[in-house]
Specification:
The protein has 215 residues and is α+β, with helices and mostly antiparallel strands. Helix content is 46%, strand content 14%. The protein contains eight helices and six strands.
């Protein structure tokens, strides 16, 4: 595995335990969207100092180093997907991770893969309430039952294999969605960066406020 691949997968490593990375195919993935934040930004640093206000936006970075700001009103699906990706990186519970990942997938893919959907249903609903024959068939094929128990090693192994497939699909589709809109997105040019509200206001006695400039 090349260094670039290792660097691009670093933030995603916490989602998949090391013991499942090889067999699931995780180690061979090259992620395209390498950073995202759950925070909604209203300010960016100006190249000449200070800050400027922007429409409420999401932030992400792709594998070539470019950083983009995505207007939440103009591009709600892409922006929501990026904010959810930021949430995914800070979530620890396994079923919740999958459900958040599936929400990202839903934002950018209309024709959802049935296997991904079936696992989402099994994690979100009581097994006795699953009624769609196709969903039941897929779960029985994958897990041998409609109830996913992540304390069972065989279930855990299948779960992570499917999650890695979903990660890969979601990353590619989100990356392509960003590239389709890149000419109309704000691209940050270093040393530009996104700023949180507290950075603008400052912290009395610790951090000076950042003055706002006219756009």
């Amino acid at each position: 595995m090349e260094c670039g691949t290792k660097c691009n997968s670093k933030k995603y490593e916490r989602l998949v335990p090391e013991r499942f990375r090889k067999q699931s195919g995780f180690n061979s993935l090259h992620f395209k969207v390498v950073d995202a934040s759950h925070y909604q930004y209203q300010f960016i640093r100006h190249l000449k100092g200070g800050a400027i206000k922007i429409p409420l936006s999401a932030y992400c970075k792709i594998d070539d180093g470019r950083m983009f700001i995505i207007d939440i009103i103009r591009y709600p699906e892409i922006a929501e997907a990026i904010i959810l990706l930021g949430q995914l990186m800070s979530t620890n519970e396994r079923a919740q991770r999958y459900n958040i990942l599936f929400k990202i997938y839903e934002c950018i893919e209309q024709n959802k893969e049935l296997e991904f959907s079936a696992i989402r249903h099994a994690l979100s609903h009581a097994s006795s309430k699953l009624s769609r024959p196709r969903t039941i068939d897929i779960l029985n094929k994958l897990f041998g039952t409609t109830r996913i128990d992540l304390n069972i090693r065989s279930h855990e192994r299948v779960f992570y294999s499917q999650m890695v497939k979903l990660l890969n699909e979601t990353d590619k589709k989100l990356y392509n969605a960003i590239l389709k809109k890149e000419r109309s997105l704000i691209q940050l040019i270093p040393p530009q960066s996104v700023l949180q509200d507290w950075q603008i206001d400052g912290v009395p006695g610790l951090i000076n406020p950042i003055p706002l400039r006219t756009p």
